[in-house]
Amino acid sequence: AAGEVESVGEGVTDWVPGDRVWYTGPGSYASHVNAPERKLVALPDDVSFEMAAACMVKGLTAWMVLFEIYRASPGDTALVWAPVGGVGSMLVPWAASMGVRVIAVTSNAEKAELARSLGASDVVMRGDDVASEVRALTGGEGVDVSYDSVGKMSAEASLASLKRRGWWISFGNASGAVEPIAPGRLAQHGSLILTRPSLMDYMSNPADMKRGAAAVFGALRAGTISIEVKRKFPLAEAAEAHRALESGTTIGATVLIP
What three-state secondary structure class fits 244? Predict the structure, then answer.
């Protein structure tokens, strides 16, 4: 959520009424929230409340997987699932700006065209044999990393698309939770590395939050990433917003307006 500090508690020295802030934590579906001071990040004047609410969790998630978990290098190849969703629409151009070849996995021609416009070098359709397509595009080698926000439906394809010692970063459950995977399977596929990160563990203290936020703000200013709020719902229609998200038809960001 994003908004303005209205008042502060006793002993609070880092914030004053009128400060523009972004907040992460419980209770963000509200017009007001009593937020712990360490859960706030200062907003620059050039970042609007709507932009902050729409992009910060997504931008920080992209920062987390790109820089804190597996920092892809120029010449690496990455598989990006849901490339035109909230996180994907930031992850694809950010990775491409680092010299990473992005292979995007999406569901239709409209989203494929948008993925290419964001910087994807190649696009694979989700209904195809993704792993076989990826192997064909990489000369049989596979990708260095799979940034996988889909979950249950994409798990096997991610596993089969990786090169030896590749990274599978499973950071979302859009299609449901991934079924348990025996560690031995990672060895069978070439000593693979699997992680299931939570953003909150990478923002567990104010220093991490400030560092991540600075990276996102910098990428926004440079034009490396951008955010477009495609849909807005009144706070009272939060259920409708969730139905739209769960339908898989949304593109870009969706926000609630108190």
Answer: helix
Type of residue found at 253: A
* Beta carbons of 154 and 81 less than 8 angstroms apart: yes
Positive/negative CA dihedral, 136, 138, 144, 148: negative
Among 91, 80, 82, which Cα is nearest to 227's?
91
Query: How do beta strands 122-125 and 143-148 pair?
Result: unpaired
Give the CB-side neighbour count of residue 88, counting CA atoms within 13 A.
Answer: 30
Pair 102, 74: CB distance under 8 Å = no
Give the pair of three-digit tokens for residue 93: 């151009």
User: 91-126 pLDDT, tens per residue?
Assistant: 999 999 999 999 999 999 999 999 999 999 999 998
Query: If you write DSSP's letter for every residue of 13-81 in order, what string do you get?
Result: -S--TT-EEEE-STT-SSS-----GGGEEEPPTTS-HHHHHHHHHHHHHHHIIIIII----TT-EEEEE
- Contact indicator for 212, 60 with CB cutoff of 8 Å: yes
Strand 2-4: give its sheet, edge to edge: 2-4, 20-23, 40-42
- Whether the predicted pLDDT of 61 surpasses 90: yes
Give residues with Cβ within 8 angstroms of 242, minimum separation 6. Answer: none
pTM of this structure: 0.90
Write phi, then psi, for 204 (nearest 5 degrees).
Answer: -80, -10
For the four alpha carbons of 99, 103, 104 and 109, in that order, the dihedral sign comes to positive
- Rounded CA-CA distance 134/230 in Å is 31
Beta bridge partners of 168: 146, 194
- Asked if 113 and 92 count as a contact pair (C-beta separation under 8 A), the reply is no
pLDDT of 85 over the 90 cut? no
Q: What angle (nearest 5°) sits at the alpha carbon of residue 165, between those of residues 160 and 167?
A: 70
d(CA 85, CA 81): 9
